[in-house]
Hints:
Number of strands of chain B: 8
Strand content of chain B: 5-15%
Number of helices of chain A: 6
Distance between the termini of chain B: 17 Å
Strand order of the largest sheet of chain B: 2-3-4-5
Structural class of chain B: alpha+beta
Order of helices and strands of chain B: HEHEEEEEEHHHHHHHHE
Largest interface: A-B, 61 and 51 residues
Number of helices of chain B: 10
Number of domains of chain A: 1
Shape of chain A: globular
Radius of gyration of chain A: 22 Å
Mean pLDDT of chain A: 90
Low-confidence stretches of chain B: 1-9
Radius of gyration of chain B: 22 Å
CATH architecture of chain A: Alpha-Beta Complex
Order of helices and strands of chain A: HHHEEHEEHEEHEEEEE
Oligomer: heterodimer
Shape of chain B: globular
Number of strands of chain A: 11
Largest sheet of chain A: 5 strands, mixed
Amino acid sequence: MMDMISRRGLLTIGGSGLLLAGCDSLVGNAKLAAVLRASEQATQRWQRLVGRDGLAREFSAADVSPVFKVNGTHEPTEAAYQAMKANGFADWKLAITGMVHNPMQIGLADLRRLPARTQITRHDCVEGWSAIGQWTGPQLGALLKAAGVKTGARYVVFRCADNYGGEVSKGGAQSSAQYYESIDMVDAFHPQTILAHSMNGAPLPVGHGAPLRLRVERQLGYKHAKYVMEIAVVDSLAGFGRGKGGYWPDRGYEWYAGI
Amino acid sequence: MASMAESADGHSGRLVPRHTGVVRLTHWINALAIVLLLMTGANIFNAHPRLYWGMAGSVDQRAGQWLEIGASGPAAAPRGYLELGNTRIDTTGVLGVSGANVVVGYPGWATFPSQRDLATARNWHFFFAWVIILNGLLYLGHGLWSGHIRRDLLPRLGELSPAHMWHDIVSHAKLQFPKGEAMLRYGSLQKIAYAGTALLLVPLVILTGMTMSPGLNAAFPFLNEMFGGRQSARSLHWIAANLILVFILVHLLMVVLSGPINQLRGMITGKLKI
C-alpha cells in the first residue's frame, strides 16, 4: 500500500514538474499576454483611485545615499551629445513640441533661472534596489502651462540623447534604440514631477542624465528619462519607438510603472 | 484500488461533507496563484539578488545588506554562494551557479519563466497578485460571514496549552492521523498553520508587496512607516514568501502521508471518506 501511495506521490510531483515546464510555452501566447496585461490597467486605475494627488515621501538631507547608483546609460557615446558635453551644454536646448500653442526652445541657463522645486526622494529601480537623492528643477506642469497644452493632448513624451543598448543581465528581449519615455497628464501636472538640472546641490552629473532628466516620483526608475532633449505633447503614443510609450515598455515592461 | 487503500487504513467508508464550495474554489485558485507568484517572484529576485534593511540599498550602498546570492571565481568554473551577514555558504549547483555553469540567483527550475526575464515575470506576478487579493477577499468574506474562520480555523485557548500541543506534536511525529469523526476537525498544529498562513503570512506578503510600489507609497504613506522602508519591506516580502513555501511543502507532505486520495477527493468534491 505504501508503494502505491509513493508511486502516486511521485506521479503527482512528476506531473506538476511537466506542467510547470510547459508554462514557458505560454509566455509567447498573445491572447494570454493580453489577459495578463489587463492587470496593468487595473493597477493604474486602482492607484489613481486611492492616490491621484498623493505625494511621494520626501526625506531629510541625512537620508541621501552616500553613492547613488548609476544605471542604464552611463554616458551617451553619440557624437552630438559628446559635442554638447564638451561645451558645457551651452548649445543644448530643450524643445517643447507637439500639441502646444507656443512651441519653444529653452537653453540650460534660462532653465536654471526658472522657479525650481527641490525634493529629496527615493529612486526605486525595477530591479529592486533603491537610492535616495536630492533633485532640483522647474516643475514640468509650469513649463507645460507656459507652452499652453492644447485640448485633446493625453501624453507627454520625453525624447533622449542616448541610444540604449539594453542590459542582457535583465533578460528578455534586448536591442539598441533611442531612449524615450512617456507619462500621462495626471503625472505631468503632479507637483513633484520636475525636470531636474541639479542633483544633491550640484549640476546633474553625466551618469545621472546631464544636463536634464525627468523626475516622476511615483513611478519606477526607468520612467525617469535621462539626457532629455525634447518634450513632445501628443494624443497618441503610436509613432514613437514601437508604440508602447517607452524604451522599456517597448520591451515588455509596464508602461504604468507605479508598481 | 482506492477502496482497498482506505479499508486498510481502517475507514468505515462513509462519505461525509467536509469542505464548502467556496473553500474548495478559493483553495484551488489560491494554489495556482501562489505557485506562480513564488516562481515569478524568484525570477524578479534574480534581477537583484540582494536584500537590505532600511529605506535604501544598492550595490553602491551596502550598509544595510543582510543577504546576497552571487557567484565568484573564474567564468569557466564559477562558484555560487549565499551570503548571510558575514557568513558565506557555497551553494554551487543550486543558488548563484546552477546548470551548465549558469550564473543566476535561483536556478531555472525554480523560476517562471525559467530564463531570466524580469519583464514577463513582473507581468505575471502582478496579474496573480490581483488574483490572490480578490480570491483572498472572497475567502475572508465567506469565512467571516459563515463562521468558518472562527469555528474551524482559530485555535481555542485550551488547544494552545502545552499539554495539548505536545500531544498533537507527538501524534504528528508518529504519523498517527485522526480517524473517523475526528477527521472532520483540525488539530492545534493544523489550526496554527492554516490560520497563521491565511490570516498573517498572506496579508503580510500582500502588504509588503504593496509597500514596494512607489505609486502606493504616495497613496498610503503609513505602509513605509509600518515596515521600516522599501528595502525592509522587500526583505519581509521575501521572508514571508519563504515561510509560505515552507507551509506549502509541509502541507503537501501531510496530505501525502495522511491519505492523498481521500484528502484530494475532500478538496475537490467536498466529501471526505471517514
